[in-house]
Amino acid sequence: MPSPKDRVTRGQLVTLGLFICGLAGCVLSGISLLWALGFGLVCFSGYARSVGLSFPVIAKLLLQGVLRIANILTIFTLIGMLTGVWRISGTIPLLIDTALSLIDPTFFVLWSFLLCAALSSLIGTAFGTVSTLGVVCMLIAHTADFNEVLVGGAILSGIYVGDRCSPMSSSAALVCALTHTDIYGNFKRMLRNGALPFFLTCLGYALLSLLGPEHVMPEGATDALRGYFRFNFWVLLPALIILIFGMLRIDVKKAMTTSIVAASGAAFIFQGASPSALLSSMVLGYQAPFEELATLSGGGIISMADVAAIVAISSSYSALFEKSGLLDSFEYMIERLALHIGAFRATTLVGLLTTGLSCNQTLSIILTRQLCAHAQHNRREMAMYLENSVVVLSAVLPWSIAFSMCGLTLQQGPEIIPFALYLWMLPLYWCLRSRNMHQSCPRPFFQFLLAKKHHRD
């Protein structure tokens, strides 16, 4: 039987209730989530003070939490620079042009999924993929009278393939930082354990494609890209560098830096970009020179500012939670739940709950990792659990930013969510193959209590 310390106290309920109200207020009013996170910082610091921690200790714990993810903030900066410079260099336009030339209109739904999956795996960003190739696929669907709901679902599926497992993905980097795992090791494991759900998704989209009428691909879909950008091997080199460095398991920061240098050279030599335009693309994002290329606009360090701020503030909570014991009772309940239904299923339920409350993929990843820390002690397994649950399921809730931004970009509503087959197939597959509860939770509860007591002492 749990001790009184392992029951939820009034102080814990009030503190978390205030934080949830702050999140709900920001979501409903459209105010930036950063205000809710700042409010949470005040609430959690107040709770820590109420249990005896001094203000200098609280400040030290907050700083300690931020320092834990200092490396990922550097990666976020490089990702922002890369997504901007790949646009102005012509690398992303070339990838889009090549991808669309491969499409068979008979299997347009399937190809939309595969091409978005390939591009998102290269550039590591769901929003970057949906705002470029995703928009182009949707425009073609509209012009050629394809089923836009099916195509929208396929695009939504594809853009989160790379968001889950690309070495360039900010969410994958965050999971690695939280679980202290290697991004290339995670990448190999995710490819292996996600192969069957990916194949079943492809099979589903192939069948859905065959159910529709025959269509003809509209001509001139990429004329604007070819008319403005010069395409050659050197423009493709920045993408090849990412692939080659990844296969050689070279540090991801070195891979991105080398790719940025190569893309800068291509922008200067082949696209005639000025130093000021190149710098602006890296920092503020690429600005398309005319309306036909408007879908290419975006990227830059500024595009990562919100997610970096959310990660920094959210991570500052972690050491404070551990020392104050704010979440201990909830961690115990989740561990008990994992003993009954399995660690992955428990992680999935917690992920859906945190995503539903925060409406934000980044914060839900951090909170789920914190709450499920004692449901799965194997770091590699926990990384897989997060990637196969909360990372992809954050896009199946209509009110979540992970979906709403994509839906707004594609001008599609929640009706496309049931057809985002990959987002459903992956967690369902893992729920079915979830390990035995005793394998998932190797330490008994009394050891968990002793570890907590020792940590506080």
Automatic annotation (TrEMBL):
Q: Where in the cell is it found?
A: Cell membrane
The Na+/H+ antiporter NhaC-like C-terminal domain sits at: 158-428
Primary residence: membrane
Parts of the chain that traverse the membrane = 12-38, 70-88, 108-141, 194-211, 231-248, 255-273, 293-313, 389-410, 416-432
The annotated topology with respect to the bilayer is: Multi-pass membrane protein
Listed Pfam families: Na_H_antiporter
Q: Which InterPro entries match?
A: Na/H_Antiport_NhaC-like_C (IPR018461), NhaC_Na-H+_Antiporter (IPR052180)
GO MF term (any one): antiporter activity
For this UniProt record, give its keywords in alphabetical order, as a comma-separated list. Antiport, Cell membrane, Membrane, Transmembrane, Transmembrane helix, Transport
Keyword Transport, does the record have it? Answer: yes
What does the entry list under GO cellular component? plasma membrane
Q: Which family does it belong to?
A: Belongs to the NhaC Na(+)/H(+) (TC 2.A.35) antiporter family.
Q: What is this protein called?
A: Sodium:proton antiporter
Species for this entry: Mailhella massiliensis
